[in-house]
Amino acid sequence: MNEYQTAGFTAGVIGGGVAGLTAAYRLLQAGFRVALWERNTQLGGQAAAFPVAGSALEYFYHHLFMSDRDIVALAEELGIGDRLVWLPSRVGFYANGKIYPLASALDVLRLGVVPFHDRLRIGLVTYYLQHVHNWRRFEAVTAWDWLQRAVGRRAFERVWGAQLRAKFGPRARDVAMVWFWNKIYLRTQSRTSLFEPEKLGYFRGSFNVLIDRLAEAIRQRGGQIFAGIGVEQISREADRWIIRDSTGQATAVDVLVVTAPSPLVVRLFPNLPADYVRKLTGTVYQAAATLLLQTRHQLSSTYWLNIGDLNLPYTGIIEHTNLIGPEHYQGWHFVYVSKYVEQDDPYIQLDDEGIFQIALEQLPKINPQFSADWVERYWVFRERAAQPIIPLHYSQQIPEHRMPLPAAYLANTTQIYPEDRGTNYSVRLGNTIVRIILDDLKQGRLRIPEPALAR
Ligand SMILES: Cc1cc2nc3c(=O)[nH]c(=O)nc-3n(C[C@H](O)[C@H](O)[C@H](O)COP(=O)(O)OP(=O)(O)OC[C@H]3O[C@@H](n4cnc5c(N)ncnc54)[C@H](O)[C@@H]3O)c2cc1C
Question: What pTM was estimated for this model as a whole?
Fold first, then answer.
C-alpha cells in the first residue's frame, strides 16, 4: 500500500496515444490497477509509426525541439534516452516560386521576398518575441492584427500572414497571438546561437521506440492494454464507472482518465453540465491530410519547408530524409506533403489517388525534375483532431482536468496552453493528470468507495 492508498483501486484510461500511455504508466507507478483502451489496433495515436524500408516512420512527420524536456526526461527514465538524436535542421520558406533558407537570423536578413527594411523589422520583432516571457499580454489580440501592426502590411502579407493562411485557412484571422508567440519563443530554446541552425530531436527507429517502451513498461507492471477495442459507452453505477467497449464487454473502474478528442468526450458523457460542454465544443480542431511519398531521389535539400505562396496549396513540405538520412531507409527518400484544412474541406474528402494526383502537378514547382517515376509508393493519412485552434482569451475557455463528474479526469490536446500541442505536452498531460488524481486522493476530494479496497 503506498502513501495514497491506491493499491486495489482500478483506473481506466481511454486512448492509447502518448498522453494515455504516460498516464497509465504513472497510475501503475502510483499503485493503481490499470486498464487502457485504444480503438486503433496500433498504440501511439497521432505519433505512431508504421514499418517502411527496413525501419519505421510516423504516419505524420514528427521531431522534437530542445525545449521538449518532459518527453526527454521520460525517455531517460524508460532507459531509451540513447535512442534520441539531435541534429541540425534545414528550414526553408517557399515564396515567389523559390526556396529561401530560413534557418538562422542571417537567413531572415537575406529573405528576398521583401525589401531589406521589412526583413530588418521581421528580425527585430522575432528578437522581441523571443525575449517576452509574459504571454498573457498576447491573449487579447489576434496574431493577424498584432503582427501586421508590428512588421507592417507588406512584410506581414508575404511572410507571416502567408504562413498563417497556409495553416489555418479561413480561420487564420482568429488565431490568438499567444499561439504565434509560443512558436517563436520556444523555438529559441532549440538553438545554441541565433546564427546557428536549430537542432531537432528524433528517436532513432521512430517515435514507436518510445511508444513500444511505454507499452512494455505498462504490461510489466500488470497494466492491461486493449488495443483495437474502442470505448463506446460510459455509465455510472454503484459509485463506479462502467466502460462498455466495442467487443460488448463491460468493465468497472474507480477512476477514469479520458484522453480522446473533445467531440468524443461529449458523446461518451451525455449528462455533462452545459458549461463544460460549451468548453469542450468551443475548441475547434483543424484537420490534417498528409501525403507521404517514398521516392528514388531527393526533392530538395530542405528538411522543413514552410509555404508562403498561394500557388503551392500546402501548409508545409517535410522531407524527413533531410533530417534522418536515406541510409537509414535502404536508400529511399521520404517526403511528407502536408495540408491542414477545415473539417469539411473538399481536399480531405478526396480519395488517396486524388491527393496524389494533385501532388504530381504541384511538386515540380519545388523541383522541376520531380515526376511520377520518382515515386515508389505513397500513402495518405488523415487526422480530424490534428490542431486545436487557439482563439482569444483561451485561458478562460479551457475545459478543466477535473471533469464535473465524480472520479473522471480529462487530459487532451485542447488543454495544452500557452504552448502548442505536441508529444512533449502529451507526456506532460499524462504526468499532470496523475498528479491531480493523487492530490485529490490525498486531500479527500476523490473518494473511492470502501469495497474497492476489499477487491
Ligand atoms: C500532422 C501532424 C504533425 C505533428 N508533428 C509533431 C511533431 O513534429 N512533434 C510533436 O511533438 N508532435 C507533433 N504532432 C502532435 C502530436 O503527435 C500530438 O499532439 C500527440 O501525439 C497527441 O497525443 P495524445 O495522446 O494527446 O492524443 P492522440 O494521439 O490523439 O491520442 C488519443 C487516442 O485516443 C484514441 N481514441 C479516441 N477515441 C477512442 C475511444 N472511443 N476508445 C478508445 N480510444 C479512443 C485515439 O485513437 C487516439 O489514439 C503532430 C501532429 C500531427 C497531426
Answer: 0.95
